[in-house]
Amino acid sequence: MAPKKLKTVEAAQAPAKRQHKADAKVATAPAKPRPLTRIQREKQDIILEAALEVFSVHGFRGATIDQIAEVAGMSKPNLLYYFPKKEEIHRRLMSELLVTWLAPLEEMRADGDPFVEIRSYIRRKLEMARDFPRQSRLFANEMLRGAPHIIDMLEVDLKALVDEKAQVLMTWMDQGKISRTDPYHLIFSIWATTQHYADFDVQVRAILGKGRGGEGRFEDAARYLEQLFLHGLTPRPKA
Question: Which are the contacts of 72, defined by CB distance < 8 A and separation ≥ 6?
Fold first, then answer.
């Protein structure tokens, strides 16, 4: 009968053992990070702004923590308190940048007039080239390196949005509102032509010269690109 007694004791002890394990898990579970204070958020913003400047000039590989700290006006140990690694700063910048990059395309409305929507998209992309040249160069540098830090975002968030808007363009084509073409390459073409004015801004201004290389170059570009794309998308009468 001894084995039965032992089994009974073990069965009685089992709930206590399970509770002990559960308590141990609770005790060792990492505590939730506390919300950042206003000063901490401001410090992070200063670091990210400095990092944007350094990364857009030197690229990820050429940039160093020391350079970022110098531009941010703080000591290296202070910077490392907020971002222990250069990769973390870059990843944070790229994540926020992709949100900004998606915004103009997200605003394309399926129930709007196709020519108004496409014209507005071209304008919004050129405004980004004008207002966020450093972000555009940072994004371009990441693409040239194979997008190691944001490939998952491209394959999920960006792809889902482009698929959605490509379907909007296809619907307009099926309805005969715009000429039939490849919607993905249409979007790629708008990206390429508008971002040129940020990524190759020095070249654009050098060629246009002082007379045409001022702020008016973006309005000139907008009118030209509108004519280029919208003329090509205007349905032709059937013969």
Answer: 46, 47, 49, 50, 51, 79
Helices (H) and strands (E) in the chain, counts: 12, 0
> Other C-beta atoms within 10 Å of 172: how many?
22
Residue position matching structure tokens 């379907």: 167
Give yes or no: residues 130 and 186 share one domain: yes
In a domain, 4, yes or no: no
Range of the domain at 173: 91-233
User: Is 71 in contact with 53 (CB distance < 8 Å)?
Assistant: yes
Q: What is the mean pLDDT of each run of 10 residues along the chain (239 residues)?
A: 43 50 48 72 94 90 94 95 93 87 93 97 95 88 86 91 98 97 97 94 92 85 96 86
| Same-domain status, 96 and 80 | no
Name the token pair of 120: 């507005």
Are both 109 and 150 inside the same structural domain?
A: yes
pTM: 0.76
Question: What is the Cα gyration radius of the chain?
Answer: 27
